[in-house]
Design goal:
Layout: E1 2-5, H1 15-24, E2 31-34, H2 36-43, E3 51-54, H3 58-67, E4 71-76, E5 81-86, E6 89-95, E7 97-101, E8 108-111, H4 115-120, E9 130-131, E10 136-138, H5 143-149, H6 158-164, H7 167-179, H8 186-194, H9 204-215, H10 220-229, H11 232-237, H12 243-255, H13 262-270, H14 274-283, H15 288-298, H16 309-319, H17 321-333, H18 341-348, H19 350-353, H20 363-367, H21 375-390, H22 397-411
Parallel strand pairs: 3-6
Antiparallel strand pairs: 1-10, 2-3, 2-9, 4-5, 5-6, 7-8, 9-10
Helix pairs in contact: 7-9, 7-10, 9-13, 10-12, 12-13, 12-17, 13-15, 14-15, 15-17, 16-17, 17-18, 21-22
């Protein structure tokens, strides 16, 4: 089925993408943009990567690129994929395929020239669309109707699609969170529940990628609730999950104008204590930075409830802005639906009103008071910093001298105050 025109897509006929299409649309061969770029353009949301399918065989794609002075990289040559780089923009160009044997990501494929068969081997109908350089949209799987209905639906038999690659379970919920409306497609949802045992065979890296993308989608809360109700989250996380704090975290982010953060939302969903954070880090193979952020969030977040602004300034100084905000938002998200948002909002926006000064005392200040290099000097600095924080960050010369005097005296001699 074809005939609908994709309007307001000048990149089809000009620029780097237009150049690649022009290169491949000659000599009896045809090329079209496929997948996510078509979906996003039809939904009027930003187009990211532009993937191209072609009837030309990989060797012919490389030959044409070479003759046109375009860099080609055989990134997935066994599966017919060559990456062409035009004006620093990469385009994955893949020869039309059909599956001969399907076993996850290592399916055996044969090259072909049938656009309909190529479309039917894809995962979801909204990803099975293609568009030519003239803007004509080709739909062999009912994707246009599903785009209009904001419905994420498997192509063909959902159980078969899932058995080909169990990661499609997570992609189903991620796609629904990003592009769907209402409840997930029932047939697809039930197939995901039936196939959830296959999630255990997926690598942690692949699961991490899908979960973190899902958590920042507009419909993340509804998708996560559906996954929890279907028994998928326990399989993935290996522990209890908490839908209410996730919903509250999303609301708090939006209230104060923060960009959605996947690790922050993961903390709200599954990390009550640092042991939870460590478990999630292992099960999802989080990066070192993500692990540290999650563990910091879960570290005694309850102490931030009910702080006055002076205490909040001390926390902000100790933790730094990102860690302070994440931990505070977790405390807010777990405060309950009846919590007054006004004081939480004031605390969460403190970094916008106040910048922590640097601790003004140095080792030289204590050496001048008779302390030598060694453990006592470090203890004096730490003691003085605590006193400086308790005094609300004074910067006056007399106040700093008094703090230094007292701290040095505490560590001198028998170290008794």
């Amino acid at each position: 089925m074809s005939g609908r025109l994709l309007r307001d897509a000048p990149w089809l006929g000009s620029g780097p993408a237009g150049r690649v299409l022009e290169l491949l649309n000659r000599g009896g061969e045809e090329a079209r943009v496929v997948g996510g770029a078509v979906r996003n353009a039809l939904l009027d949301i930003p187009v990211g990567d532009i993937d191209i399918a072609t009837t030309a065989l990989p060797d012919e794609v490389i030959r044409r690129a070479r003759s046109a002075g375009i860099k080609s990289v055989p990134t997935g040559i066994a599966h017919g994929t060559v990456t062409l780089v035009v004006e620093s923009q990469p385009f994955e160009v893949t020869t039309l395929r059909e599956d001969v044997e399907t076993f996850g990501r290592k399916a055996k494929v044969a090259f072909g020239r049938d656009w309909a068969r190529d479309a039917r081997r894809r995962d979801f109908t909204i990803n099975g669309l293609s568009v030519g350089s003239d803007g004509t949209v080709h739909d062999y799987v009912g994707g246009l109707d599903d785009i209009a209905a904001r419905r994420v639906r498997f192509i063909g038999d959902p159980d078969q699609r899932i058995a080909e690659d169990f990661l499609r379970i997570l992609r189903f919920f991620r796609m629904h969170a990003a592009f769907g409306a209402g409840k997930p497609d029932r047939d697809g949802y039930l197939a995901c529940i039936r196939g959830r045992g296959g999630l255990a065979g997926l690598s942690a890296e692949r699961i991490r990628m899908e979960i973190l993308k899902l958590l920042v989608a507009d419909g993340a809360a509804q998708a996560v609730i559906a996954m929890e109700d279907g028994g998928l989250l326990l399989t993935l996380f290996g522990g209890v999950t908490y839908r209410a704090p996730l919903i509250a975290m999303i609301a708090a982010e939006r209230l104060i104008g923060l960009k959605a953060d996947p690790v922050r939302r993961l903390g709200a969903l599954g990390a009550v204590v640092t042991e939870d954070a460590k478990r999630l880090a292992i099960r999802l193979r989080l990066t070192n930075g993500e692990t540290r952020a999650l563990e910091s969030m879960a570290d005694r977040w309850w102490r931030l409830a009910g702080m006055d602004e002076a205490a909040a300034r001390r926390r902000l100084y100790r933790l730094g802005e990102p860690r302070y905000r994440d931990r505070l938002l977790l405390a807010w998200a777990r405060a309950g639906k009846d919590a007054d948002p006004a004081p939480w909002r004031e605390l969460a926006t403190l970094p916008e009103r106040w910048t922590a000064p640097k601790f003004p005392l140095r080792a030289a200040d204590f050496k001048a008071r008779g302390l030598a290099d060694g453990p006592a000097l470090g203890e004096a600095l730490a003691l003085a910093e605590d006193a400086w924080l308790a005094a609300d960050f004074p910067l006056g010369r007399a106040e700093l001298a008094a703090i230094a005097d007292h701290s040095a005296a505490c560590l001198a001699g028998d170290r008794q105050p």
